[in-house]
Structures are given as C-alpha cells and as structure tokens.
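Hypothesis: this fold can be encoded by more than one sequence.
Test: take the structure tokens below, design a sequence, compare later.
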C-alpha cells in the first residue's frame, strides 16, 4: 500500500520538525513548508493526499492559502490548524469545503487519525462514484461544458472532471460558449452566474431557447434566493455555491445526465407506442 503523502505547513520550525517526525513514524510520507508561498509552490509541483495548514502565518495566512489551493486543486483535502480560538465566523460556519478544523496544540495521534479518516473517505467517494457510473450505464462519456471567466477555475475544474471520466470543453465567456454549443455535442453545462460580457442568467436564457435538451447547473459565489428562483424559472436544473464540492458537482452532473437519458428513452417509448396504435398489425 502506498504511503499517504502529506504536506505540513507552519511557520513554527520546531513544530514542523517534531510533528513531521512523529507523523513519519506513523507511516506518513511528510513534506514540510515554513510559509504559504512555499506551500503553494509545492502543491503546484507535487501531488499530495492531504494538506495540514496552520491558520496564522506571516506572509500569507492559512485561510488565503486554503482558498488558493481550493481554486487550483478543489478535490485536495485540507485540514486547518489554529491556536487562536476561531476563524472568521462566516468561514467557520460554511467551512467552504474544508476537510477538518483542529485546535492547536494538536495531539499527534488525533491528527493522524483525522488524516487517515479523510483519506479513507476520499477513496470511498471515488469508489462510490465509479460504481454509480457503472450502475447507471455511463459507459459512454458524459459531455460537459464549463463556462466561467476565471481561467484558473476552468483549468482546475476541467482536470478533476476529466479524472472522473468526463469529456470537458471550456469557455471564458457567454458569447463564446453559445457559439461553441452550435458546434459541439454537450449533455450538461456548468455555468457561472457572474460574468462580465453576458451574465449567466442571460446565457441560460439563450441555452434553453436554442438548446432546450441541454441540462444547466448554475454556479455562484454570492448565492441569493432571488437569483436561485430566477435561474430555476428560466430552466436551470441545479444551483450550487462556488467553489463547488467536486464530488457533489460530479454526482449532480451524472444525475442530470441520467435523467436526460431517461427522458429521451421515455419519449422514444411513447413514440413507439403511438406508431403501434396507429398502425396495428
């Protein structure tokens, strides 16, 4: 069995040394970073199973490092450590996809158990997604279009969805996306609400008018009841907060694809029944 690859990030050198050694004795492959800038460079160059990240650091604080990791590698689990009681209430409440949150001084055995649990959960989710895809007949590739003006988000999300056996095309603007839809077969569109040239709701209106069978998932970093209601009334199938949980997004895409296939099969069944009714043997 491969060792769990762990990146431990903290500006306290003594803590890094003692903790990395203790985690190494427990079977983890541990790399360390003394600051946020180094940590971001390391996750760009190497693959890790989990990042353990101190909140308070001098150059870039842990919350900002977490957000940067989340943009580029949305399915990389992150554990936040803090010796300062609490993070900003909104961040602490939503957790924004954080894997876990532990207070310092941390018990190493507790941290090790937490890391193992997160890795096991990630592996279990991957297995479940694979089994679900087989059970619902996804031998063919699900064709997804991502529409967002944030290039980093597009690149990172494209990679993680491709790893889940999806065929992904991307567009940085609504106008470009509508032109691409005329040339490409797409099952599900994942669409950011806030874009500069044509906002997501306007793009959604055009999609449902010109490509009514395409399912649309709206993404927004600033969710509101009004926007959600308008999106659903216009024809969106789902409305998800940005940045999305990758497993949630993948499961939603697969569900919509399955529903789309079922609807097509039902239409075909009704057509066959109508033909038989009109032309009995």
């Amino acid at each position: 069995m491969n060792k769990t690859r762990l990146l431990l990030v903290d500006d306290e050198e003594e803590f890094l040394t003692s903790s990395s050694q203790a985690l190494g004795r427990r079977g983890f492959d541990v790399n360390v970073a003394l600051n946020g800038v180094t940590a971001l460079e390391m996750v760009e160059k190497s693959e890790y199973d989990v990042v353990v990240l101190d909140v308070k650091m001098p150059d870039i604080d842990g919350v900002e490092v977490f957000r940067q990791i989340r943009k580029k590698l949305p399915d990389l689990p992150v554990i936040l450590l803090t010796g300062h009681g609490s993070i900003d209430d909104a961040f602490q409440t939503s957790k924004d996809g954080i894997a876990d949150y532990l207070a310092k001084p941390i018990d190493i055995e507790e941290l090790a158990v937490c890391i193992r649990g997160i890795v096991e959960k990630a592996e279990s989710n991957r297995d479940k997604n694979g089994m679900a895809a087989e059970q619902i007949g996804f031998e063919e590739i699900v064709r997804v279009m991502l529409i967002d003006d944030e290039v980093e988000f597009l690149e990172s999300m494209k990679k993680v969805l491709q790893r889940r056996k999806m065929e992904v095309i991307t567009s940085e603007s609504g106008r470009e996306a509508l032109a691409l839809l005329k040339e490409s077969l797409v099952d599900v569109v994942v669409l950011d609400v806030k874009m500069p040239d044509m906002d997501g709701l306007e793009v959604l209106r055009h999609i449902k008018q010109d490509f009514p069978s395409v399912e649309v998932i709206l993404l927004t970093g600033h969710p509101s009841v009004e926007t959600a209601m308008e999106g659903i009334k216009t024809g969106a199938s789902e409305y998800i907060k940005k940045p999305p949980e990758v497993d949630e997004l993948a499961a939603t895409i697969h569900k919509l694809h399955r529903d789309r296939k079922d609807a097509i099969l039902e239409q075909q069944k009704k057509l066959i029944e109508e033909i038989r009714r009109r032309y009995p043997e």
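The longest helix spans residues 246-278. Residues 12 and 34 are 7 Å apart (CA to CA).
Hypothesis status: open.
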